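User: Hi! I'm working on a homework problem where we have to compare a predicted structure to a textbook description. Could you give me the structure for the chain below?
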Amino acid sequence: MAQMIFVNLPVKDLDAAKGFWTELGYSFNPQFTDENAACLVFSDTIFAMLLTEPFFKNFTKKDVVDASSGTEAIVALSAESREEVDALVDKALAAGATPANEPQEFGDAMYSRSFQDLDHHIWEVVWMDVEKMAREQGAAAQG
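Assistant: Happy to help. Predicted structure tokens:
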């Protein structure tokens, strides 16, 4: 079985969070979704558990970070192309997200944009030409 990742994030309004991600074209696994949590599906092995703040607090003895004033994590999502990066971030902004940073370009082999969702969690959408990066690193190592 392939290893899976579940990113657990507190949300203030679960219905609003579900609506936001649905507008971006994602779905939820109903098996792990109820009034306290929603299992956001990115792929067969990558999920985000959106947990109401009171429910989230059951899993930690620490204070829950107020993501509007502090950053607890930056979650990066890969994209197939620069155009897909722009399309997803533009869709997020239209659905109520706010920009997190300026777009970043690293030569012509990597491009990213980021946004803050409705609960101020930072999501970075990244396209990389991995083969070109490997060729450039190989050339630099030889030179």
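For your comparison, note the following. The chain is about 30% helix and 30% strand. The chain has a mean pLDDT of 93. Good luck with the assignment!
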